[in-house]
Amino acid sequence: MACFTATVAEAVVVKVIEKVEEKKELKVAEGSKHVEESARIPFSRKLKWLTSLLIGGSFLLAFEHVWHGEVVPWFPFLTAMNNPDDAAEMFHEIATVGVCMAVLVTLVWVGMCIAADAIVKRSAQETEQDHAA
Amino acid sequence: MTLLITVFAAVIATVLWYTRKNDNLGLGILCFMYWGASLMWLVDAIFEYVELQEEYFTPALEDMINDTFLGLSVVALGLVVWVVKLLITDPRGVVRRSLSSRTAR
Lengths: 133, 105
What we know:
The structure holds two protein chains of two kinds. Chain A contains three helices and no strands. By secondary structure, chain A is an all-alpha fold. The longest helix of chain A is centred in the last third of the chain and has 49 residues, at 84-132. Chain A is elongated and about 70 Å long. In chain B, α1 runs antiparallel to α2 (28-52). The A-B interface holds A 3-4, 7, 49, 52-61, 63-64, 67, 96-97, 100-101, 104-105, 108 and B 2, 6, 28-29, 32-44, 46-47, 70, 73-74, 77-78, 81.
C-alpha cells in the first residue's frame, strides 16, 4: 500500500549522513599535507551506493503503487488515507513489509561494502607484490 | 512476474556495466535502480507467499498479464531515467559538442 515510504525515509536519513561525511572527508583531505593514494574506499562513496539503491528502488516501487492506484497526485496522495481501516492496514504494512525492505537493502549494502573492501585490499596487495618483484 | 522481469533487467544492466565500464555511459544508476527494486519486490513476494502459500505460484492469467505489463513498464521507466541523466550529465560531451556546433553555424 505504501511500503516504499519506509525506504524513502531511510534514503533521506542516509543522504544527510552522506553529505556530512563527504564534508568531513574533504576537510581531512585538505588538512593533510601529504597526499597519499589510499587503498580504502571513502565511506561517503559507500553511503552513496546505499542511497542509490534506496532511492532507485523506492522510485520504481512508487511507480508500481501509482499503477495500482494506491498513490494519487492529489492530497492526501495515498488512497488508503481516505478510510481509517485502510490507513491502519497501510501503517501495518509500512511497519512490516516496508521495514523488512529497508533492512534487506541495508544488509545487501553491508555485504557489498565488505566485498568491495576485500577486492580493493587484494588489488593493493597484488600491486605491492609487483613492485617488490 | 514484475520481480522476475526486474531481476533480469538488473542482471543485464550489471553485465553491461561490467563490460562497458570504460565507455562512461553511467550504467551504474540502472544497476542500483533495478537491484534496489528487485530486493524490495523480493520482500513483497516473500510476504505474499507467506499469506497465499501454494496459490502464489499459480496466479490468474489476467494478473500475470497485468504484472508483465507492469514489469516491462518499470524497465522502460528505468531506461528513461538513465537516458535523461545521461543527456543531462553528458559524460562524453556529445550534447555540448552538438549544441556548440549548431550555434556556431
